[in-house]
Amino acid sequence: LSVTMAIGSHRLSQQGAITKRMTAIEEMAGMDVLCSDKTGTLTLNKLTVDRNLIEVFAKGVEKDYVILLAARASRTENQDAIDAAIVGMLADPKEARAGIREVHFFPFNPVDKRTALTYIDANGNWHRASKGAPEQILTLCGCKEDVKKRVH
C-alpha cells in the first residue's frame, strides 16, 4: 500500500501538487468534490475583489461610486480582510474618508450582518453607507422583487 501511495505522490508532484501527508492521497481518492482556492484567501489570508464581478442595479450609478461607498462603510484602521480588500480597490485608501466628516461608524455584528458609516459630505448633506450580507442590504434598500431575484 505504501508503494502505491508513493507512486501516487510522485505522479501528483509531477502535476504540481505537493502532498505533505501520504494519507492525504488516500483521503483524496474518496472525495466526490474538492473545493480549492487559487486566490490566496486561505493560504495568504488575503482577499481580493474582482471589479468585473461587481454588478450595479441602479440606473445612473457608476461602479466606482459603489466601490467608494463600500470603502466608506469599511474600517480604515484595524481592518479585517474584507475591509482591506475593499479599501484596497481605491487608488488611494485615504479616498474612503476624503471630503467627509464621520459622524458614527457601526461595526459589523452577527445580528445585523452589516457595517455602516453615517457621515456628512462637503455640502452639509447627511449620508449613510452600508455593506454586508446581501439580504440585509436588500432589506435596507427596499428593492423590488426583480432586483432581489437578480441578486440571489
From TrEMBL:
UniProt membrane topology term: Multi-pass membrane protein
InterPro entries associated with the record: ATPase_P-typ_cyto_dom_N, ATPase_P-typ_P_site, ATPase_P-typ_TM_dom_sf, HAD_sf
Protein's UniProt keywords contain Magnesium: yes
UniProt entry tagged with the keyword Transmembrane helix: yes
Keywords annotated in UniProt: ATP-binding, Magnesium, Membrane, Nucleotide-binding, Translocase, Transmembrane, Transmembrane helix
GO MF, any single term: ATP binding
One CC-aspect GO term: membrane
Localization per Swiss-Prot or TrEMBL: Membrane
Name of the featured protein: Uncharacterized protein
UniProt source species: Opuntia streptacantha
